[in-house]
Amino acid sequence: MVNKHKMLWDKCLVLIKEKVTEQQYNTWFKPIVFESYSVETRTLLVQIPSLYVYEYLEQYYTGFLNKVLTHCFGTNVKLHYRVVVDKTHNIAQEVEAEEHSDINAAQVSSPEKNQTPAGRPAHLQELNPQLNIRQTFNNFIEGESNKLPRTVGLSIAEHPGKSTFNPFFIYGPSGCGKTHLINAIGVRCKEIYPAKRVLYVSARLFQVQYTDSARQNTTNDFINFYQSIDVLIVDDIQEWATAPKTLDTFFHIFNHLFRNGKQIILASDRPPVELQGMKDRLLTRFSCGLIAELEKPNVQLCIDILKSKCRRDGLKIPDNVIGFIAETANGSVRDLEGVVNSLMAYSVVYNCNVDMHLAERVIKRAVKKDNKPLTVDDILEKVCAHYNVTQQNVFSRSRKRDYVTVRQISMYFAQKYTKMPASRIGQLIGNRDHSTVIHSCTAVERRLKVDKAFVEELNSIENSFRLKK
Fold it and tell me: Is the entire prediction scored with pTM above 0.90?
């Protein structure tokens, strides 16, 4: 019986060889190895050498393979692949071929019919990149919280699709500068490569466009348009979590762009592992390039951002007011800009100077303070200020008593007021290990039991945190 089904598969290969070029056959079909066929479930299991081969077959030959299998094995045959994922240890993963869909048929019913090697139409209309030209690298101020994403983003803009940072997945809380950064990448790329088709689109607009195309029966045109993009930038992709049809369509667009060396940039408010509702096949693609976290700016970066905005817009705001705004704006770039704009409006309308009194009035109305989380940066700043030492001193390997005290107190408060594990706290405070954090917390707790003056010191520091109950 096994020989019979093996012969049927060999017959399939003969038919395939007649329909495709020799190079296509040798590359995609010759490496396929027959393993088994189940009469009860009508399931054909074949082995292929890599996930890349699986994805290519699924993308370009799904309908073709279905026809060949139906001719040789009969109707309703299910095709399963055993994909070799680790040749050294002979580890394989079994995956089921997807059902033949309209999207597959529309895109690539036969690979020989592709318009160009990249699948791009010969004549393309001019494209509006939909970029905010005011959001550039020049006004995206660098700090510790954004140094890696900014550096990678600049590299991508200069060499789109030609680095290991594809796709580039950026995540972080609202107001941390994600939209600014991905726009800056697009703007710089367009400056260097004017002919490249660069497009920024929000996830919501992409979904609306897809829904309209499905309603108007123009899905093929929609897919072909997005497959013509050289640098695709999609913002807020977490909004697709409840849109399975949109995700399925984007999956095929993603595969096409990625396979043809086109740059993909994605932004979200959470990392891929927390995007519930999305299929693993898409999440693994989001994760195969570089994932970079864009953290909220600390106080010093907020100050630098505010001073840069003042210089750029010709504003005059006293340093003490800038410091106050930076400390109370919740680490949000949007809040910073909103406060400054409000200050200038009040100043012009009421013909008054920008001072601390005006800043307090504006911030009271503009910045929401409830439930502001305390960060390790907040803790370090206040503890260092209390003991008049620098963060560099705390991060150093010095065993000087003052530095050790500040280090231990910072770790104690970090464990008390944040939800971070000891290992993460240690990394953020001088790149120490978790055992150092545990030891520091124990030392502080012991001292609190016997030293009343120390208790008062820590109470004073806690009051300066402005914790929100």
Answer: no
